[in-house]
Amino acid sequence: xxxxxxxxxxxxxxxxxxxxxxxxxxxxxHHYDFVLKETNFTRLCSTKSILTVxxxxxxxxxxxxxxxxxxxxxxxxxxxxxxxHWHGVKQPRNPWSDGPENVTQCPIPAGTNFxxxxxxxxxxxxxxxxxxxxxxxxxxxxxxxxxxxxxxxYPFATPDAQETLILGSWFKGDVMEIIEYALASGGDPNVSDxxxxxxxxxxxxxxxxxxxxxxxxxxxxxxxLRVINAVMNEExxxxxxxxxxxxVAQDAAYIKPITTSYIMITPGQTxxxxxxxxxxxxxxxxxxxxxxDGTVAFNNSTTTAIVxxxxxxxxxxxxxxxxLPDYDNETAADNFTSQIRALASxxxxxxxxxxxxxxxxxxxxxxxxxxPNSSCSGPDGNALSASLNNISFELPSVDILQAYYGxxxxxxYRTSFPNKPPYTFNFTGDVGNNTIYPSFGxxxxxxxxxxxxxxxxxxxxxxxxxxxxxHLHGYSFYVVGTGSGNFNSTTSPKTYNLVDPPEVNTIGVPxxxxxxxxFVADNPGVWFMHCHLERHSSWGMDTVLIVRNGNxxxxxxxxxxxxxxxxxxx
Length: 570
What we know:
Blueprint: H1 2-14, E1 29-43, E2 46-53, E3 62-65, E4 69-76, E5 84-87, E6 113-119, E7 125-131, E8 141-147, E9 161-170, H2 175-185, E10 194-197, E11 214-217, E12 222-229, E13 235-240, E14 245-250, E15 253-260, E16 263-265, E17 270-276, E18 283-291, E19 302-309, H3 330-337, E20 358-369, E21 383-388, E22 391-393, H4 400-406, E23 439-441, E24 444-447, E25 452-459, E26 468-472, E27 477-484, E28 503-504, E29 506-509, E30 513-520, E31 525-531, H5 534-539, E32 542-547
Parallel strand pairs: 1-4, 3-8, 9-12, 11-19, 20-25, 22-23, 24-32
Antiparallel strand pairs: 1-2, 4-6, 5-7, 7-8, 9-10, 12-17, 13-16, 13-18, 14-15, 14-17, 18-19, 20-21, 25-30, 26-29, 26-31, 27-28, 27-30, 31-32
């Protein structure tokens, strides 16, 4: 990899990018090899085999500059088929390498390999990659660092150094067995046994204090800290004892700096934070714990790492610990997220669509699937499920992109995802028995190329209301408004921020509230949209947007690569 990276810089400098003929002809080309394999790891006093990339947890970091392209050859030496998704990378005209299983490709069978072409365009900052098959992302994930393009710099003073912290989940059991059992029984899957920072649980867990992750800093230096939430099922509060956080980017787009003592970050989100090591040289705890605003089972533990100053001093007898909000403190979460605004500068402009051609209102709900003889482990003897607009998404056995591109749908999907909830009721109040039982199917929404799109996500009070981090593949979108209660088509749009709304790829839809997003449908392809709480996605809180081709070559899906993984059950 080192040779390829050196060569990529040489090629970029010499301007030879025409050799590849790629859509991002100005960027450098990087090559990575990802070897998926089972590896023994010891955590929480016990050893088990987990699926890893290149034997590490987290997996390797992909480092590029804005506008580059990375070819990642994934060698599957594991036990079953799976895919990799490049979270937040727009992949212009290239859904073939986006990764969600049976949406844009079928799994890479064990014993084979597949090369992803990861095309970077406007993203700058921090993103991440993760497996996108069942619950394999629990251990198959890593960071993507996108540095400013050549001859450009950050919209703030260049930091002295960088650090990446990835928040994750650790399960003592086998994660595939946990979700398979939950789906078979209809009940809630087991919660994780620990949270981790860069793969380590930290001092507050059994058998863990010898391996707590330590971030070494020099007094007086300012660091660009990249925080990624790869946790499976919980949003997180995160803080560093005695140190101020200045958040400067979210989801690889710059924001107006926010100075804060803590952040709230949902699964799928990334944040870039300036941290100055300006405290007396010592040790200071980094801590992260769940933010859960619903009456659901969750992991109520705290993961820690340590900021350790370099130099000669006596380690403290008591390491300072940050103050984190209570796990259910909605006000603390809202106080943070409501501050986020796009930088919207001359060098980093935004382009919020003002003309809307497609408006879609999507209700989000936890539901039940009726089980014969009340034989399941969910509410009322039924199975737990989830839906968007009362449709619980079912993954087909072949991928949707292949069916769409080849023109041979053959019943793989239906183009009848509705523009609004099928029933209108008091979504966030007394819902009664409304839409407890959804319909099931693979229904997608077709969108014309170039349209201005507005989607209003409406939370509901059905069964178990909570915050839902909704993620859209293939796009960043502008969060133009959020609110509590039911969206009102007359009054709610009057509260929209069309001046500097944040540009993100994952938005936490408030519990019993709504969030409105906008984007221009300028990326043709088949794009998955889903809740990034993994159990909700497994239950069907998903759909697909298919953006049709435009009239020019540059507005059409690229031709598929010579090889795609075959579509057979694996």
